[in-house]
Amino acid sequence: MSSLLLRGGALLVIFCFVLSTASLASEKRPNVLLISIDDLRPELGCYGKKIAQTPNLDALAASGVIFDSAYCQQAICMSSRASLLSGMRPDSGKLYENGPLFDHIPDALTINQHFLNHGYKTLLAGKLYHHKSDLKVGWSEKPFSPRNPDWVGRGYLSEQGAAAARRYDRENPNAKRRGLGPAFESPDVPWNAYRDGLVAEHTIAKLRELGGDPDKPFFMAAGFVKPHLPFNAPQRFWNLYDKSQFVLPERQHAPENVPSLGATSGGELRSYIGIPKKGALSDDLIRDLIHGYMASISYVDFLVGKIVGTLEEEGLRENTIILLFSDHGWKLGELGMWAKHTNFELDTRVPLIISAPRKDHIASGSRSAALVELVDIFPTLCELAGLPRPSDLEGVSLAPL
Fold first, then answer.
1. What is the DSSP letter of 269?
2. Of 46, 82, 272, 273, which residue is most buried, by most CB within 10 angstroms?
3. Residue 327, CA distances (Å) to 86, 222, 250, 323, 348 in order
4. Which of 72, 77, 291, 328 is catalytic?
5. Can you give the pTM of this predicted structure?
6. Is 341 a catalytic residue?
7. Around Cβ 393, how many Cβ atoms within 10 Å?
């Protein structure tokens, strides 16, 4: 009798284990779509900016949670990206110094490596890391970097821009920066003519492939360069705005007694054709630059809309975490300054939007005023995807928010 009971108990345990395993197998692990945008301050409709034409980013925010007080770790590309992708603060590996992440922290475990190690197919199109050498590990396929023989210098497509970039290289053979032309252009070209258009096109193609293999979860990263300089975007996106609608910065002078280390005059902008090497910019030029910045934002907004639309078409949207961020902000003439590189609010505050698969505790279109950081992205994605959290992460998960 006792033997039968033991045998029956063992069978019950095995039966429960099989049911549990089947249940876990039936629960699909969520996919991840990580969208990186360069130099984007929160100049979006969903952040209360009335002039911004950003319907697709606004719709994405309405499907998830928008963070109103999100900040980068340092307002410069390399440090910000290396920090958030490794989950470590810039101080930990001297990431505030320029150079590849893996030169500073050779044994760093990055987001894409972590997801690859846990069975995800990891893919990248465009810019995610600042240095190409950091792309050598952690990917299921070779990352896609767009090329187009029609591009001249820094991706110019207009005759004027191309001619200026060629002339610059001839006249400055030893210059640190190459291929510089005007700070903006707006030729009448298709949406996929520029670098970011090809990044979106490749991402869309990969999502269609991944839609045909629903049993393997994916981690897809799409990295857009705009609205980074030069502000080049197809004419249709420039036409969304009237130059006269842009209001000049209220204050075009630095605060009194600001330390010299705490201010910048223009950074990279001063290197472009048509921009004074020093001193104030004319009101007309300031409006042109704001126009180019806004057109570039609307261009990226359009591309994000096409990618999210593909997720929906392929039946992937309901099981995909979408996390969109910018590496840092950007000044548009405020305080007489341009670009990033300072600790002013305009440099450090960034857009951060997380749209996770529907859960009872996630309210679509909600906002969080909590103070959050880009170093929190790594632990957040771990918790939302059900992956273990690496022990050396220095941020906190935003999932409770």
1. G
2. 82
3. 14, 13, 26, 13, 9
4. 77
5. 0.92
6. no
7. 20
